[in-house]
Amino acid sequence: MSDDELQVSELADDAVMLDVREPDEWTAGHAPGAVHIPLGELSTRTEELPSVDGGLPVVCRSGGRSGRAVEWLRGNGFEVRNVAGGMQAWQGAGKEMVAESGGEPTVS
């Protein structure tokens, strides 16, 4: 693990973070404190990024897309950290999740 990464265990269940997954993935299940900006829209929506002490956690399904987002955001002056293992690790750790559909949240 590098300084650029956060383990799920380091985050509170209601942590504010950036979720860069696609809309259908977000709808299926996400962390309750997450802000949704799909990776493809990130460059035009940076004004929506929340400010978080210690760096904004960035999450996707498994860590790949969020890693690319972290690289781009850092290059543009943002303090961010990749969530190792993504939402799969979040769900695996038994962290709280919500689904936009109101059904049982899942990581798709």
What does this structure look like?
- The mean pLDDT is 95.
- This protein has one domain (5-92): Oxidized Rhodanese, domain 1 (3-Layer(aba) Sandwich).
- The radius of gyration is 12 Å and the shape is globular.
- The protein starts with a strand and ends in a 16-residue tail after the last helix.
- It contains three helices and five strands.
- The chain has a five-stranded parallel β-sheet.
- Helices cover 23% and strands 15% of the residues.
- It is of the alpha/beta class and 108 residues long.
Quick tags:
108 residues; alpha/beta; five-stranded parallel β-sheet; 3 helices; GlpE_sulfurtransferase; Rhodanese-related sulfurtransferase; transferase activity; Rhodanese-like_dom_sf; Rhodanese-like_dom
Q: Summary?
A:
This protein has 108 residues and is an alpha/beta fold. Helices cover 23% and strands 15% of the residues.
What is the helical fraction, as a range of percent? 10-25%
Instruction: Quickly give the structural class.
Output: alpha/beta
Radius of gyration: 12 Å
Taken in chain order, the helices and strands follow as: EEHEEHEH
How many H/I helices? Answer: 3
Counted beta strands: 5
Kindly give the count of domains: 1
Q: Whole-number average pLDDT? A: 95
What would CATH call the class? Alpha Beta
| Percent range for β-strand residues | 5-15%
Outline the low-pLDDT stretches: none
Cα(first) to Cα(last) distance is: 25 Å
Q: Order of strands across the biggest sheet?
A: 1-5-4-2-3
Largest sheet: 5 strands, parallel
CATH architecture: 3-Layer(aba) Sandwich
Identify the CATH homologous superfamily.
Answer: Rhodanese-like domain
